[in-house]
Amino acid sequence: MQTQAQLGLRAQRVRDITYYLLLILSFFSIINYMLRELFGDLPLLGSLIPAWKEGLIFLLYLMFYLKSKAEGRIDWKASRLHWLILFTFGATLLSAVSNWIIHPSVLKISPTYHWVEVTASMSIVIDGLRTLLEASLYFLVLNALIDDEDTIKDMVHGMIVAATLVAAFGIYQKLAGWETPPAWTYSEVEKGIKIRVFSSIGNPNALGGFMVLITPIALALTLWAKNWTHRILYGSATLLMLGCLVLTYSRGAWLGFLAGMVVYTIITRNKWLAVVGVAGLIAAPIVAESVVARLTLAFTPEYWNKASEGGRVEFWARALTIFKEYPVFGTGIGTVGDSVATRHGVPGATWIDNQYFKLLAETGIVGTLTYVAMVFTPVINGIKSVFGSKQRDTFLFALNAGIVAALFGMLVENVTAAIFEDLNVITHFWTLVALLYVSIRIQSQKAKA
Fold it and tell me: Which locations, inside or outside the cell, does it occupy (predicted)?
């Protein structure tokens, strides 16, 4: 029989181990890059590196089990979002079952348009489920594990430090004169763009997505900071990330960030930020000519002609045509486009460059509606919490407002690219969702105290 002191010591050890695992998660972008660079090419060991994230998830769940055992109860702190994750999992499985029953076809666009039958093999289904939902496991365990504001602060500061280092590396690429493939800029209007920085992430759109997730938080904390030391630190990180975001030349990331900041300005009722934003938009054609040129290029006949022949517009039309043929359950997860379909060599697979259109084609209206409800629910809950909060001068209020802006910006960016398929982006997305839910819960407890 263990004494109360022994149980308390065990609980403290579990908490200490959990804390360091959470810090590892906070520096995910850096650690993942270092593991790939240092060990990725080594025989045998290199093939195991991609599984380190599953190892981290396993250890976090082990800590939750030990914490629950020490407390004598299991409390997942269930919410509507938990059910939506489960429903999305079920709807995705239904799309696979539908594929096995009806044997659908997808539209292949090369060399000519024609329909080809696709089969959602078990490996494709598992890979599709993993890509779509594995990262939500972070939310489920973090929401149950984290219960104090100090841990949240340390995790957020870790993510800001990591994102700042990633941003600094991206800016260094620009200053050092690195160049990127010409395919990343395909118009004469953009001939002056020699590099779209990609930093340690490896892709400018994914890097832009990472900046969209962390920059609003750093900016929110800059505006909240109570002393000049903190303002300078948060502000410097914000400026570096903004600079990196601009240098990605990712239209989707720019639009996502702007959309997020509009939401932030509204829910925080920050009139001064609204004035600064309007002034920035007015001055943009003068101070950021290349940025405006790349944005406005999307509305030119040149862009639409190219996008309609082997580009976004053609891929979107293909996905919607497939959806019209199989509107209820789609053709099956992983059978139409983006990373899973291309990785498994599915006939006709292309990059759809729209997370929602891809899901319409693969999982139909059932899967897409459950998915949209799942990813938008945290944003709606966050908006309600921030907009109705009376504790407007606290760290958690500022953090929650920044997270809401980040999450909404990411949902907007996924209209122009399937950024959620990037491991770094989706890991941070669900981690931030967990921090948002824990923060709201802590604020509610403080309000009742």
Answer: Membrane
